[in-house]
């Protein structure tokens, strides 16, 4: 009988009888080559002693094990061991982490240690990218188990420094630089900065991944083979210490004060949410906060904008001759080829309401009926003045919005209120507010040094139209659906939005609010995924953000 043990255990086992041993007279040593081949040499014949018979019999499975290892076939190598699952798992981990281009293993002369047990030393050399040729000595016990010789597997077989639960991995020896905010301090926004692998030191997401070569000191960064904890990835011991280089920091436009105000405003929000802030004068991204962290929905999210898109629709209507004081009926319902559109909570406005009134109160039915004033391309063309439809080079991954040409009356009707196929990110909507404030589209930018060429809008916003939009956005705060901001300082201008999504009845909705401060250089957008309505839900979050900045 033999004692059972875990795959990583190195405890000795009791040997079975030797009755089924196969006599085999082979080489005194074996050289295992990269790719899995091995060559026997020093053969001798004749009657062998008992020790020689054991050594010869044990040599064959060990040579096969080492040959498969050198060929980077973990599963095949594990098949020659007494614990194939554990062996395959650890060897796969090592090969995956180190990614050797070549492995050479030299097998030494075996020595019988007891009945049914032979000890073999061997030397491993791996060509590891970034670390060069790494060589170490190890050893294995080969045991006679029920008449079959097997490699007795334990973690030290792979490397003598390995213990159960550990593996070999690569660690960058370069001094990694930081992603910085606009003040030169480390940026505190994980969904923007991203993450770094704790063992390899390589950026795995966000700006850390995009600018890994700069932050880490270059593609040829020196690396060390380390013993690492398999569960946490934490390096336990450096096996091949090396002198590293030094990375260069990446500076962003994020204003730490604005970023902190945005992050604090999202505290306590129970749904996925984002706030983006932009400087209207130049498009610099001042804040991009996400709750929870991880996915950078502030810059990359794709959502129907709902009624905040009415800024673009109003632009198209104003360009077509509409005036803020023109009469604009707002019934409870509107029908387009059998499809019913309605206002939130089915409100209606009294007779005599103006274009400014329906904009400020976010009347869907007026805008749906106003589709007759627009061609199939008018919304797309108006959106171009806000940079939508172009490819932005912000310095990180972004979603830059989409306003397709209308393909039907229903499609156009839904598009006027930011539904159908209209899509935007919080970054896009903050940029729309910034464009109204400045009168000119300035493509947003996060990492100025990395931006080679900013996108230029193919058309500009008419100055008279921009002025009328500003007045309408201010009225939305003082007498409309953005009243949550009415008592705040800084002359906030805003537009609310409630965007339907999905196929449930009643539909689920995203909550939006976008705007800018009339008294300062700040434009912003707030999004609450599946978060209710713009005025009631996004409004208080926007108010907290602006209040935080006013302190």
What is the assigned CATH homologous superfamily of the largest domain? DD-peptidase/beta-lactamase superfamily
- As a percent range, the share of strand residues is 15-25%
| Number of spatially distinct domains | 3
CATH topology of the largest domain: Beta-lactamase
Give the biggest sheet. Answer: 7 strands, antiparallel
How far apart the termini lie comes to 77 Å
Category from helices, strands and their pairing: alpha+beta
- Gyration radius, to the nearest Å? 34 Å
Structure annotation, total helices = 17
What does this structure look like?
The protein has helices at residues 50-70, 74-78, 84-98, 155-158, 190-193, 206-210, 212-216, 256-266, 297-300, 310-319, 355-360, 364-369, 378-384, 409-416, 426-438, 463-479, 534-550; strands at residues 29-32, 38-41, 102-107, 111-114, 117-128, 132-145, 148-152, 166-172, 179-180, 223-229, 235-238, 250-251, 273-278, 285-291, 333-336, 339-342, 492-501, 508-517, 523-528. The chain has 551 residues and is α+β, with helices and mostly antiparallel strands. The protein has 3 domains: 29-160, Nuclear Transport Factor 2, Chain: A, CATH 3.10.450; 179-251, no CATH class; 256-550, 3-Layer(aba) Sandwich (Beta-lactamase), CATH 3.40.710. A hairpin with a 6-residue loop joins strand 17 (492-501) and strand 18 (508-517). Helix 8 crosses helix 17 and helix 10 (310-319) packs across helix 13. The longest helix has 21 residues, at 50-70. It is elongated and about 110 Å long. The N and C termini lie far apart (77 Å). Mean pLDDT is 90; it is low at 1-48.
